[in-house]
Structures are given as C-alpha cells and as structure tokens.
Design goal:
By secondary structure, the chain is an alpha+beta fold. It has helices at 2-26, 97-104, 108-114, 135-142, 166-185; strands at residues 34-38, 41-45, 88-90, 128-130, 205-207, 217-220, 226-228, 233-239, 247-252, 257-267, 274-275, 280-284, 293-300, 303-305. The chain contains 5 helices and 14 strands. Strands 5, 6, 7, 8, 9, 10, 11, 12, 13 and 14 form a 10-stranded antiparallel sheet that branches. A two-stranded antiparallel sheet has the order 1-2. Strands 3-4 form a two-stranded antiparallel sheet.
Length: 315
Amino acid sequence: MNLLRGRQSLTVLCVLLVCVLAACSSRPRGPVPVEDRVAGTSSTRPARTTQPQAPSPSQTSGAAVVVSTPISMGPSLPGSENAGKTGYYSVRPGDTLTKIALDHGHAWRDIAKWNGLDNPNVIEVDQVLRVAPPVVEMVAAAKPAAVARPSGATAPPTVNQPSSPPAMSQPAQTAPATAASASANTPSPNSDESLAFAWPNQGQVLAGFDEAKNKGLDFGGKVGDAVLAAADGKVVYAGSGLRGYGNLVILKHNNTYLTAYAHNQALLVKEEQVVLKGQRIAEMGSSDTDRVKLHFEIRKQGKPVDPAKYLPARP
C-alpha cells in the first residue's frame, strides 16, 4: 500500500515538473524590461541602447529643430553701400564731425543734415558719410528757381494779331533778358571771383605754411589782441571740440573757401552769425598750445593752402 502511494506521488511530481519546463520554454527571450517613471507615469523600454536616427518631417511637427546657419556679423553701418564712392567719406579713429567738415570744406551742420544725424556727436569708425551736397541741392543752387504752374495748366492759345513795328516792340522784348544776363554775370559779394582776403592779425609771423607740419600761418602777439575776419562770411563753427586747435572759429566764405582761427582766449561770435571782412571775431590766446599765438588757415575745398599766396602785401 505504501509502495502504491509512493508511485502515485512520484507520478504527480513528474507531471508538475514537465508542466514547469513547458512553461519556461514557451516564454519569449529578450532584454529585461526597464521601468521609466516620469511625472508619475511608468512605461517600459529596452535596456539596450540603439543609434539615434534623424526624425522624419512628421515627427518634428511642433518640436524645436536646431538648424546650422552662418554666424551673423551684425547690421551694416549706415551708408556702408557708398564706401569708396566720390563725395563720401569713411570715418576713421579720432575723427569728429567738425574735423571731417573742415577737411571737406563744409559746415558740420550741413554734413549732419545730409546724413540725417540725430546726434552729430555720435559717429562710428567705418561709418560712411556724405561729404558733398546731394545732386538735387547742387542743381537747385546752380539754377534759379523755376516758376511753378498750377497743376493741369496749359499754355494759352496763340491769337493772330497785327504785328507791331519792330522799333516799338524790340526794347520791350529784350530788356528783361538783358537785365537777367547782366545779373548772372555780376559776381555776388562772396563769390570765388570777387573774394579778396585781408590779414587776420598784424602780429609777427612766427611760422609759415608747411603742408606736413603747419597747415597755415602762426602769428605772435599778446593775450587779448584782436583776431579779425579775413573776408565776409558765415560762422560755421565756434567752439573747442577740435583737438589741437583750442578755442576755434571757422568761417565759410563761399562754396570754395573756409578760414580757421585757432588758439583764441575768447570767441566773440556764434555759429550761423554773418560777419564782415575786418570784423573782430575773437581775442588772441594760448588755448591748446604752448604760447600766445593765432593759428590761421585758408582751406580751398577742404584742402589747406598757403595763406601767404592769398593775402595782400603788407604795407
């Protein structure tokens, strides 16, 4: 009896062992799942890492994609498209608008206007500035203003009338033209043809013109001696913003000539003021120099010229 029970138990044990082995052989082989927990959720992913692949267009919808682009060098400086052209100037280190204006024979206010500078004290190195009048302005200055006709106006129709005797009609027709011609040929008081310079000071000439070392004449004298306008003109600068010149006055006489008066103790005129030849415009001093003197320059289209060639002989 005991032997029978032992055989039955052995049979049951064998059956159980066969079932267990069958179950193990049917289980799929693969990596052990790894649990990820993000924000309270869980999911399974293979523990084995694979090489990432580029996403397809549909996978990138709504996602940020980094695109390789050339490094931007920043916005171009104002006027850079005009670099190297006639009538334009590229700002260099140490430049000021006053210096640029003096070197090109114009008022700094005009250059500021031509370039639309809101703050003339702020210019950048390599910024390109217009240093010649715009073409429209040059044409307007060269030609008399045309009489504007009302929009849509047409010339009146020609009416046949009996002709007047030539002796009666000729003076009336030619008088306006003759007057206009005479007016055009008569130089204005500050035109290039009629401009004659006078000595700005009667002191001794300390140093003559040297294009490399001295761009004008230096006069000796005492503090407070009169500095006189060398010709009729308009004050285009009065201040001390140009290094090496001290208290400076610049006069514009016409479209060709400027004169400069440097190292003054006091300035007696203001910008935009019209002055006459021989008028006292400053007092001699020693600002930004080692002794009392007047430094005087004549600039022809911005270029320094020898004043001795333009001044009359001293009595």
